[in-house]
Fold each of these.
Amino acid sequence: MTSAPVTPAPEAPALSEAQRIIDTFVAPSKTFTDIRRSPAWWGPFLVTIITTLIFVYSVDTKVGFRKVTEHQIEQSPRATQQMEQLSRADRENAVAGRTKFTRGFSYGYWIFILLWNLLIAAILYGTFKFALNAEGTFWQTFAVVMYAGLALSVRGLLAVVMLFAGLDPDSFNMQNPAPSNPGYFLSPTGSPFLYSFASSIDIFMIWTLVLTALGISIISNKTKFSTALIVVFGWYAVFVLTIAGITAAFA
């Protein structure tokens, strides 16, 4: 008797960039599985550029970068003290210069996001590749980071909705624009360390971290989701404590 031939399981059809972006929110496993086929990342990067520019333009028109800059100075005792030591003319020039820089940096912030995600991908790739002997390439890891970061774009769009819904410009904080974390309800001048730490416990950031861990566990094959969660959240904890410490030291 001869055994029946084994029919291989059909491969999942390739996804378009639009499908991968949508599935990141509704069926993330499909997106990250497709990254094993193609580590393309231009789709989420384009979405990031668009949503970032929408957010910055909304801040520019509804709040104004002059007010954003003044708010940033008020939140920093050191900056406030420096401004008080200047003459009125010098203070005006200093605020105008800061406003110009803040506005230009904000409109080009998508470049910083790209570079930051490259750094995060390098750290995660090195950790999983050399410490855990996981599979997956650097560009697959980078694609995972880019797609997972789409969750943070939702926070920016939520802030845009709040601005156009009538949010008081005087209460707007560009660094923490939406009530998605405990820090939003705290004063930055009270305890800079506590404010920075509380701001890091953000719903959309947690969503991003979970998506990142899921994506890495899928592209690496050998890595369990629980292990990926520990590594991703562990690195985030290091980053949060470092930034909180620096913020408290230079407030």
Amino acid sequence: MHEFSLVQSLLSRVGDEARRRSALAVHSISLRVGELSGVDPDLLAGAFEMAREGTVCARATLRMNRVPALWSCPRCKKAFAPGEVLHCASCDAPAELSEGADALTLESLEMEVP
């Protein structure tokens, strides 16, 4: 379950940010989860619930914004529908992933600071 190691890294990063700002607590964490990231949101949420105890994030909520995979032509910007061949008939160019990549991105934190 790689979600647990992702949560451990996330909590380490958030802890560093909280210490840098002398935060008393973290109230919420927002993540962007790319459709192609291979992350199971339910497993990630469960791992977060277990791992956050005893940390500055002990009472924090985790919000995940799922980003669907979107493909487009790099030349003419034509968008490709799911299941469509990822090659532009007009430009003869292969499609590029424009959204929903394999990234897991920390979007925002809400912290209580003195």
Amino acid sequence: MPHRDNRPASLTTGRMPPMANSGSTLLLTLLLAIGLVFFLRAASKDRTTVVDVFSPKPAVEVLDGLTSWLTARGWAASGGDANQQLLRFRGQVSSSVPLAILLSILGAVGAGCLGLVIRQLIPSLGWWPLVLALLGPAAGLLYRRRAERAETVELRLISGAEGGDTALKVRAHRDELIALELELAEPLQLASDGALLSSPI
């Protein structure tokens, strides 16, 4: 009498059961979705930073140069505090349209993949899980809503005697501080600790 092998086909052929494959794919898809959420948070995160800036030029010349540069970039003076030697500028920061489109595409592809996995796990649902792909543009809209906000640049004079060196404490978005250091380092002889340019974040 021939011997019958009662083991599951997956054990005799070395293949994983379809349900196990779908479960693994679902786990990876959920991990990708979590990664997209963290990417959204990082893209719209507030990166306001404070740095100390120094220049051998007089304070009046340095402040005039900074004021002209900020005004040319769309910042508007909004007063300050004479006692604290503080100048304040306000501006509306806009979101990146290409980044919003990219996030919408990533969201649509990720949601569509999740829909395919759900259809594999629950075939009775038909193709309805693919409707999740329509949620993709929500990622771009969420990014634009969080990224577009009013921001402030503050310049506080620490020291700047007549004809002496100038020391300022500047509080602004990290990208604005990097642009300031790159564009005004030579004209105003500005210097800082260089941490902004060396930091990858």
